[in-house]
Amino acid sequence: MSYSVSVYAARSVPAATLRAQFGDAAAFEQVEATRLEHQDADGLLVIEGPLRVDPDDVPEAVLALTTPTHLYTFDFVDGIGHDLARRLADSLDGVLWDGEVLRAPAGALPGVVTPARDEPVEVVALSWFVPPRAATTPVRLLADAAQRWLPEALPDRFGDTEPFQARLSSAGRPGLEQAWRTRSDDLLFTCDRLPAVEGSIGTPRRGNAAPMWDIELQLLGAPFHDESWRRRLQEFFIGLAESAGAVYAMAEVLGGYTLSRGRLWHQGESEAGRPWSPEGFCGIAGHPVWWSWFGAGYLPLVADRLAHPSVGWRVAPTATGTLLSLSTEPAGARELQPRLLGLRRPGGWFAPALLPRPSSRWKTPARVLPAPAGSRA
């Protein structure tokens, strides 16, 4: 599959300078004044630019963010193309575009306010449940998706015990993947910058009904009441779910947290409804959550419910699954629970057979789980 990514910017650098700037990542040949080429096992990577651009030829979504004077295009099959395009967009403070905005200029998004030490904060907790694949790792899937859609979520410090001893800036991607392979427990990490705070990547610690990689991320909720931040978060949420081949992903809004020394602390009993336990993946979240994404394995199981959504539900097909959104802005379980005459009423979510079964110690897998990839119903 080929990709085409563009960088629009109000500044430019010559192709020869760009060739030297990217020399640490690839050996480019300058074949024309504005054309660089690099051939490797992934295929041919072509960079065209800087090209003068007229506002009439710029996508409206880009013009809403900046008035560019120059354009660069990156055409490639796989490999480092996206990373180099983002590097250029970052260095020029430009717009990264592939039919939608992947990176906006610094002034285009509202700033993130760091909460006071004891100030209660709302948290958006993202979870992806991914069948293991031999050709990749969950840390690679997370890092690739974050690099493309939400760089704030890239891991910063990481390890399986605290205080974390490793840092991405010094260990690099190979060090992060090695930490995943040699961990004694879930791999924990803090994120590059707010609004992303921290996360974890794990697998079940004991026998389970549905072996999965579990990718989890926590972010400050306040920025996502802004539409531009929310759009970026949704692109990242769906993008990781689809690129990882997840069976299910969820975005849950939680209260009762504080932020201290760059970590989140919860006061009292957690509201979290993540369908995960030492037995592994347990099904759909047990109560309504802000966003749910269903992969191909789940779609036959939830088709009737999604075909008859409750009032306020928005169902949207994506490239390989379906997104269910219960509200425009972030909202927690109490706000999303169906009501009758102003009172919360039970039910109205998904069939009980699809939900985790409670037990005295931890959740038990739902009676009905999606069939493994490649199996026949």
Task: Give the topology.
Elements: E1 3-9, H1 15-21, E2 29-32, E3 35-40, E4 43-52, H2 60-63, E5 70-76, H3 81-92, E6 95-97, E7 101-103, E8 121-130, H4 138-149, E9 155-159, E10 166-167, H5 168-181, E11 187-191, E12 196-202, E13 213-220, H6 227-244, E14 248-260, E15 263-266, E16 276-277, E17 280-281, E18 291-294, H7 299-307, E19 314-317, E20 322-325, H8 333-336, E21 339-340, E22 343-344
Antiparallel strand pairs: 1-5, 1-6, 2-3, 3-4, 4-5, 6-7, 8-13, 8-14, 9-10, 9-11, 11-12, 12-13, 14-15, 14-18, 16-17, 18-20, 19-20, 21-22
Helix pairs in contact: 4-6
Describe what this molecule looks like in 3D.
Strands 8, 9, 10, 11, 12, 13, 14, 15, 18, 19 and 20 form an 11-stranded antiparallel beta sheet that branches. The radius of gyration is 22 Å and the shape is globular. The chain has helices spanning 15-21, 60-63, 81-92, 138-149, 168-181, 227-244, 299-307, 333-336; strands spanning 3-9, 29-32, 35-40, 43-52, 70-76, 95-97, 101-103, 121-130, 155-159, 166-167, 187-191, 196-202, 213-220, 248-260, 263-266, 276-277, 280-281, 291-294, 314-317, 322-325, 339-340, 343-344. With 377 residues, it is α+β, with helices and mostly antiparallel strands. The chain is built from 8 helices and 22 strands. It folds into 2 domains: 3-106, TATA-Binding Protein (2-Layer Sandwich), CATH 3.30.310; 121-354, no CATH class. The mean pLDDT is 89. Strand 6 (95-97) and strand 7 (101-103) form a beta hairpin.
